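Box 4.2: Ligand-aware structure prediction
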Amino acid sequence: MEQELKDLRVEFSNALASARDEAALEAIRIRFLGQKSGCLTHLMRGLGRLPADQRPRMGQTVNSLKKEMDAGLAAALAALASPERRGDGLDPTLPGCAPNLGQLHPITLVRRELEEIFISLGYSIEEGPEVETEFHNFEALNIPPDHPARDDHDSFYAGPGRVLRTHTSPVQIRTMQRCQPPLKFIAPGMVFRRDAIDPNHTPAFFQLEGMAVGERVSLADLKGTLTVFWRRLFGDRIQVRFRPSYFPFVEPGAEVDISCILCLGKGCRACGGSGWIEIMGAGMVHPAVFRAVGYDPDRVSGFAFGMGIDRIAKLKYGIEDLRLFWENDLRFLGQFRNESPR
Ligand code: DAH
């Protein structure tokens, strides 16, 4: 009987510990102390059958366990009704804790803003792989293996005939291979070059490529499109000028400048006193590029352009060091909340 009492005690305290509400406590009371079939009640009834010399001591033990159970149940009931449990201790006037919300990276915000402008001009968005074939990244863009332009694109090689794309221009080739003219698309994405890291260079950065191909697409269309684009981005007073330049995949090719967004052309520190900011490359698609994708250069013409998204983000937000975009310091990234046009 002694052992039974010990087991009962352990069972009771386990049951009490797992009770979460009043109904559970009442069930425990009935199970152990109930008049009809409570386990302890049952033991108490059995006391009479014990030898007379054991009866007093066992009687005492059973009684003290009963008291202990009564007290345990009462304490548990009181705890359930305490102010903390009921939530009475809650002060609804206290300010809440604002959850830490994620937000878009400044480069993403700028990329989306650029996309938005081109979408409104009727451009679609195309994509290509970051691991590219040398054919798409170079050859088809009129940059043969020994071409000096390959030196400007210090590449990461990714196995025989494969490079991490050094620019977004290969998306021109992939899109033309897949679709027939007329075409009008942009291709934003990450590109890679083996540049030493400094405030103006990171080995991965972002470009946005653009292309329009059709029956009589002209240099005037290119200049008009880019003028509208830069004015939408930086305001109606922005001027756009073309300087003749060389890129193997366009002829004629141009470096495009916009008037300085800070001094609007007067000359300031940001533009090195010139009033102009070199911002992108552009030109009329080279016949060799059309031939590489099976288009007939006598029947179609087109323009193409490419710009650095990081560089535009730097200008727009007045950021001097590109590396900040990669360090993921939340104090830096937190400054660009709510800038998204979407
Ligand atoms: N792909 C060139 C680069 O990364 C940028 C560029 C220049 C793209 C002229 C073009 C273009 O489409 O016409 O430096």
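In the box above, the bound molecule is 3,4-dihydroxyphenylalanine. Strands lie at 124-125, 131-133, 162-164, 183-192, 204-214, 240-245, 250-259, 276-285, 301-308.
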